[in-house]
Design a protein that fits this description.
164 residues, Alpha-D-Glucose-1,6-Bisphosphate, Chain A, domain 4, alpha+beta, 4 helices, single chain, seven-stranded antiparallel beta sheet, globular
Length: 164
């Protein structure tokens, strides 16, 4: 991790286990438009938002109640010239207990200010982590992107995801 990687932190009253479970409930805080597993080591999932953003993630580290790391395998933004942005970056959720509270430090390792998408991604991650994920942890209800008619079956097959 460098100092330029995007990072944000939240502090909640819930337990590390509750935070860990919420992080893994990707459909509950990021998007209902997710195909594939989001909880176990080596799970691969596809995130999709309209024609704007499609990403394929793999869980490369899962330490219950302490850490979750996704590696970005593939990514496409409709609004950037550089189509490789995010590819091989890591999305890291570090969970620690501090003074009777639980801290979640979110880092998108490799998301740096030089990226075309940086400001848009900065704003989006801040909203998802500080808003939706925090709400899911503290109230049981996040604010994920809603379903938009399901993922294109061709994409699911192309990226090797299990069919529903």
């Amino acid at each position: 991790m460098t100092l330029q990687d995007y990072s944000t932190t939240i502090l909640v009253d819930q337990t590390a286990a509750e935070v860990f479970n919420a992080v893994n409930n990707v459909r509950g805080w990021w998007s209902e438009e997710v195909e594939g597993g989001t909880e176990k080591l080596n799970d691969v999932f596809l995130y999709h938002y309209k024609d704007v953003h499609i990403a394929r993630m793999k869980l490369v580290e899962v330490i219950p109640n302490k850490k979750v790391v996704w590696q970005v395998l593939d990514n496409h933004f409709s609004f950037t010239k550089d189509k490789s942005e995010w590819v091989n970056t890591k999305i890291i959720f570090d969970i620690t207990e501090k003074d009777g509270k639980t801290q979640l430090r979110f880092t998108h390792e490799g998301l740096v200010p030089e990226y075309e998408c940086y400001q848009v991604c900065f704003d989006a991650w801040t909203s998802y982590i500080q808003g939706s994920l925090k709400n899911l942890i503290t109230t049981g209800k996040g604010k994920p992107n809603g379903k938009e008619g399901g993922l294109n079956a061709e994409l699911v097959e192309k990226w090797g995801l299990p069919k529903k």
